[in-house]
Structures are given as structure tokens and as C-alpha cells.
Amino acid sequence: KEIFLKDYKSPAFYFDTVDLKFSLGEEKTNVASKITVFPSVEGTSSPLVLDGEDLKLISIKVDGKELKEGDYHLDSRHLTLPSPPQGKFTLEIDTEIQPQKNTSLEGLYKSSGNFCTQCEAEGFRKITFYQDRPDIMAKYICRIEADKSLYPVLLSNGNLIEQGVLEGGKHYAVWEDPFKKPCYLFALVAGQLESRDDVFVTRSGRKVSLRIWTPAQDVPKTAHAMYSLKAAMKWDEDVFGLEYDLDLFNVVAVPDFNMGAMENKSLNIFNSKLVLASPETASDADYAAILGVIGHEYFHNWTGNRVTCRDWFQLSLKEGLTVFRDQEFSSDMGSRTVKRIADVSRLRNFQFPQDAGPMAHPVRPHSYIKMDNFYTGKVYEKGAEVVRMYKTLLGTQGFRKGMDLYFKRHDGQAVTCEDFFTAMQDANGADFANFLLWYSQAGTPVVKVSSSYNAEAHTFSLKFSQEVPPSPGQPVKEPMFIPVAVGLLDSSGKDMPLSSLYHDGTLQSVAGNNPPVFDTVLRVTKKEEEFVFCDIFERPIPSLLRGYSAPVRLESDLSDSDLFFLLAHDSDEFNRWEAGQLLARKLMLSLVSDFQQNKPLTLNPKFVQGLKSILCDTGLDKEFIAKAITLPGEGEIMDMMEVADPDAVHAVRTFIRKELASQLKSEFLSTVQNNRSSEEYTFNHPNMARRALKNTALAYLASLEDPEITELALCEYNAATNMTDQFAALAAIAQKPGKTRDDVLADFYSKWQHDYLVVNKWFSLQAMSDIPGNVENVRNLLNHPAFDLRNPNKVYSLIGGFCGSPVNFHAKDGSGYKFLGEIVLQLDKLNPQVASRMVSAFSRWKRFDESRQKLAKQQLEMIMSANGLSENVFEIASKSLA
Ligand code: ARG
Ligand code: ZN
């Protein structure tokens, strides 16, 4: 059933207190709830409708009186009281559930023997009958009863107020959460866990106990997560003045988890991949992801929990904002430019394609069938870009004022994206005109800009035009409010001082001539619009959209030589990288067309020269170099083509890489040599940057058919003392099929078979391989003893990894599509959320040539015809076919 934003109605009944009693068992679990209910309007005649799925109703009482059949209606999704009492009343419901059989990993389920929960978005209804919507906020008490030896640790939200021993080897604990919360933030954990404990003292002097829980053997691997948590707590105080509000903060790591992590009040539950790390088993990327996600979930305590969403359409209110906050946190802890580059690449490779496909939806969707399908790059990453634009427009202080007002107005409430917008505007007396369109219009705006210099008048003009492409349900779009940060470079490569500009027939001064300003933010709001800079005494090279100030596709009239100039000189490091990417994209697209016409491929020597000068520039940050010499992804290039041609794009990217490797072989070799280190592993920017550069160079070299390089990679593999270096060497070796590859892959497995997170890396490396016919290898790996279709991480590594290989997933013979079609159906029986993430790989089928289209469509139709398809998969598959 499709649910629409425009149909939102505030609830007829609110819940005040919720008293839950869990009796956890091996065969069945009993859940008793006692809720105080009150009508929103006295004397309402509305029925009370509760959500419930896969629940066995044992009994239901109103004000202590048991209801008989006929006093209520029960169907497979709802429990309805047609005529509840007129005033406040208590509702008591007993249900029975079977968490041990719950493979969907939502609601209450078991993961390696322990009980845990995942309620967002709509999983609480699998625990007990409830108004499962975020605008129902109540105070919870939770009593957990379980076998003491099997489940020595019993956790829920808030404070532990009572615990004790019971008969029959059982024990209990009672938790009370003093803050009102929606049910999606409820959590319960019971199991054999141990904790790493620490303390954080807030700036107002509250002593907060921090505990990170895992199975005993993994506790040593939680040091980095604890470091990250404390850093996040401090950062939120320093940057936003936000303090933690309870005396205890728990984090639990579980191996079976659909997503990354969940911000349940004071009891965050994490996919263990995002908690556990040691230098030997986790890579720099893992360390960085842990820092970011620990931060993300912690930051939700204010942006999400204290102020939550009125309904699920508002998801970006908490997720866009919290992603923005975690991005800023990671920037402050490492390198801002490098973080920005990584985030923008992600956006381009994953979100842009989605935004141009059948599942395109605005940051605030208008409708959904299954909310879980909307935990997307649109809501998260594009939502974060929208928040970033407020900051770009208001500056750091103005943004902070807006945040302060937002909390002042809405603490303890369930609100909407407009409320955030209004707080930002009101706090600054600003006028953001049609900015709200960012929430309602899907699609990535295309912004064209042309420039001209008038040497007599000393003016420089930038003419903008914008177009938002149509998307499902939105054929025509309005122009958007696009902040474009601009600087102008003089012929020596320095930023020119900006004094004033003409816009809309008026002369505006560019704030603050003393001290001089070197960049400004243009507010592009119309379909066509011109800005004319005055007092420009030589033809400048414009640096446009600095820091990627808006999530648009910018098409400028900059020439290649302008771009090489920006690559060499722009003071905005992000735009230096961007200039290199633009050059690379142009180059790749033109080679793709050569390839398609069977023309021989040749590489522009200027491009090689440009990359060489970056590679050898000792003044640059090493991680910046690593990013700047990395070509745009194949997905990004396919996304820019009329008809996506995976074979051509792959061939071209491989060709350029190999050509660069052979022409810059000695530079790459010395990069590898000069960036080795025998020091102990440390997670800090200089060391990660060094490893990133070395390993990027190694990956280039490994594209050559060269025994000397194989030797070198083997040597790196054997000498590695941390996973970053070891895995990079393994990946380098695995580029070329053959005995060395097989041997080293086998060696790696035998070293790490006891560590399932490392084994997942091994799965995904093989799954993503572009070795021809790799689908067979992946099929075999399905039967590998370490593989398990019920564990999402393993599915994402093996199946998700495979779909990430353009050549093999999109193989001309349809073998990749057929493979995925089969797997989706198997997965859907076990875990619809995971199945639906996998089926999304088909959603862009119309972007390919006719024969591929036909093959992909067949699979989608086959999936649609299956019996008992979940709503999750149905929504993606049917919208893809539409
Ligand atoms: N709120 C979680 C986060 O931190 C994600 C939960 C997603 N759950 C789901 N079923 N889609 O981003
Ligand atoms: Zn989140």
C-alpha cells in the first residue's frame, strides 16, 4: 500500500507512558505492554488503530478489563479498537513473538545467540501492537527477564533502575528512559557481552559512563570506537554547544545488522563492521568509517532524538542534518579537502545515477510503499548537501544561530523540514526565497555558465542558466535557489580581490572591501541570470562552485587550458581536484567514443604531464595527490553517457590506467619506495595520507603485465604490518588472473578465516573483480563455508560487490543479471530489506543498450511474477519497470 505525504493526519490518540515487560525465551518471547492513552481531542469518536506484524495476540485489556473477541478487530497488520473510552485510559496488551526465527533483522531478533532490536523505521510493530509512527512520543520503562547464564547482560534505553535474581536460573533488569521518544528509538539487548568502559565528563561537569559491548574476544578491538565516541562528544560541545543528557551511553556491536548502525536513545546498536578495528584487521577506510558513524549515531542524540521527525517523509530532517554533522566532524578530525572530495565522489557515483533513474525522489519523498526503501543517498547525502547550503549562505555563525533556535523551539518535539528551514531563516532574518524546492523537487539540476570579459569596461560577466531534468511524477520543474561560490584567478594564479557586481540591474558591493574579499557566493535563483563583476583589470579564470557549494551538474565554458591552470593554481583545493576530474571526464568520454568507433586509443600527453606534476609535487598533501591522480569511477562516466556502455568505459579506464602506469613507471615506483614505513600503525592524517598515496601508486603499477611489479606487490604483501597495506597489495596482485593471484588469495584466507570481517573483504575483492566470466567464481563462493545468505554483511560483500563490477554484472550474455535475479528471490524469503537493496542494481536497466535492456527486464519481470514477494522488493522492481 502506497502512503502519501499529503495524507498526513495528526494522531487521534497520544501515548503518555509505556511500560514494557519482556520475558525472553528460546521457544517464544512474551511481550507485555501497558500504555496510558489519551485522545488528542476530548470526546473523539475515532477508533484506535494499532500496527502489528507477525505477532500472536494473547490478551488485551482496557482499564484492567479484558476485551472479548468482537470488542476489537484483528487483521494481519492491525489491531483496532472501534470505540475506545472517551478520556484517558490504560491499554494492556500481551503478545508472543519468536525472535529466534526472525531473519528479517527488524523488530526483536537474535544475532549469534544474543537478542537485539532494530525498530527504525517500522520494526517496533513486530515487537508489540503500537501506533508505530514517530509523532507518538512517550516515556518508556522496560523490564527484561531472561536466563541468567545465557543472557548475563540485559540492556535497554535510559537508566538502570532495578535488577535482581529470579527463580529457575533467571534474572531481570528494569530500565527507565526519562526522555520522551518515538518507538523507533526503542532498543533492547540481551546476551553474553563484555564491555570496554570509559568516562566522559561533559563541559557542565556531568560524568558519563561510556560502555562499548561486544563478545569478550572482540573487546580489544573497540579502542578506536571509544576514541571516536569521546572525540564526537567533545566536538558536539565545541562546535554546536550540545551536551550529552544522561549518565550512561551504551554502544553494542552485533554481526547481523541490515544497515550501518542505529541511534536508539542511549543504546546505539551497531553493525560490528563499524565498531571493531585493529591495525591488523581493519583498513584506514574502516577506521575512518568507524569515526564517522560513531559520530553520526552520537550526533543523532540531538538531531533525531531530542528533536525528531513528525513522519517518515521528514527523514532527511534528521538524516541529512546528521550526515552533514558527521561530515564536518570527520573534516575537523582529518583533512577537510580530502573529506569533501570523498563525499562529492560518493554523491556523483551513487546518488546522481539514482537521481536520474526510476527511483528518483526528492529529499523529502511524496510517497512510499515501504519506508526502508527510502534510506537512500537522496535523503542522506543529498539531504546533507542541502544542509551544507544553509551554512554556505549563512556562514558558520549564522548557521549556528539557526541551529540554536531550532533546538530552542523544538526540543522534545516531532517536526518537519519546514520547521528547520524557518528556524534557519528566522534566526538570521534571512530570505531564502524558493529554497524549499530542494526538498520537493527530485533530479539533479544542470547549471550552465558562460563567461565573458570586457577589457574596456573592466567587467567580467558570468551568465547562468539552469534546468532540472524531469523525474517520475515530476515532468516540469521550477528553477532552484543555487548558491554558487566563486573566486576569480589572475594570470599569476592568485585570487583577485572582488569589489562589486551588477545583478538584476543593481550594483551590489561584495561584502567587506577592507579586508578585501576573494570569493563570494552568488545566489542563482532564476532560469537565466547574469552576474557582472566590476573593477576586474585583466581577464580572469573563474573558479566556480568552490567547495562544491551546491549539488548540481555544472557545465562551464572553461577550456582545457583553463582547467589545467586551475588544477595547478586554484586556492580552493577542492576545485583543483575538480579541474583534474573535469579534464579526466572529458578525456574518458572522448576515448569512449573512439573505442566505440574502433579507433585506436591514444592518451593526450598534456594529461600525462598534468598528472605527473601533481604526483611529483612535494608541497601537496599526499592524500590529496592520491585523490587527484585517481580517475573518475566507471559509474560516474556511464552516468554521463546517452547509452551507458560498460565495456567501453571499462576498456577506456583500464587503458588510461595502464598507459599512465607505463609512462610514469619510475615516478610510481619511487612513490611506493618513498612512502613505505616500518613505524607502528597510527590512525592520523599524515600516516593515512602516506599509505593512500603509496597504495594508489602500487595499484597503478599493478595494471602492467610486469613480473617485476608482481614481485614488488608480493614483497609489499609479505612485509605489511597492517590491513591497509596488506589488502592493497593483495588487491594489486589480484588484478591479474594466474597462479600468483590464486596462491595469495588462498594464503590470505587461511590467515584470516577466523575473522569474519576480514573474510568479507576477501569475498568482496573477488566479487568485484573484472576478470572475464567472474560470475562463475561468485556462484562458487556462494557455497563457500564462510558464506551465509542470512548475514547482510556477507551478502553486501559478495552479491553487492559483484553488482559493482560493470563488466561482469552487465555481461552481454545476461549471466550477471540472471545470477542476481535468482539471488534476489532467495534473499527475499529471508530478509526483504537486504533483497530490496540488491534488486536496486537493476533499477538503471533503461540506461543500457537494447539487448541488455531486454535481459535485465526479463529478470525484473521474473521477480515480479514470484509468489509472496515482499513489499520492499515489489516497490523497487515495479517502479523500475514502470
Ligand atoms: N537511523 C539509522 C542511521 O543512523 C539508520 C536506520 C536504517 N534502518 C532501516 N531499516 N532502513 O542512519
Ligand atoms: Zn542517521
UniProtKB/TrEMBL annotation:
Domain annotation Aminopeptidase N-like N-terminal: ranges: 20-185
Cited Pfam families: DUF3458, DUF3458_C, Peptidase_M1, Peptidase_M1_N
Domain Peptidase M1 membrane alanine aminopeptidase, residue spans: 226-435
Highest taxon of source: Eukaryota
Keywords associated with the record: Aminopeptidase, Hydrolase, Metal-binding, Metalloprotease, Protease, Zinc
UniProt KW Ubl conjugation keyword: no
Peptidase M1 alanyl aminopeptidase Ig-like fold domain mapped to chain residues: 443-556
Cofactor(s) needed: Zn(2+)
Keyword Cytoplasm: no
Residue ranges of domain Peptidase M1 alanyl aminopeptidase C-terminal in the record: 560-882
Family: Belongs to the peptidase M1 family.
Full protein name: Puromycin-sensitive aminopeptidase
Species of provenance: Hibiscus sabdariffa
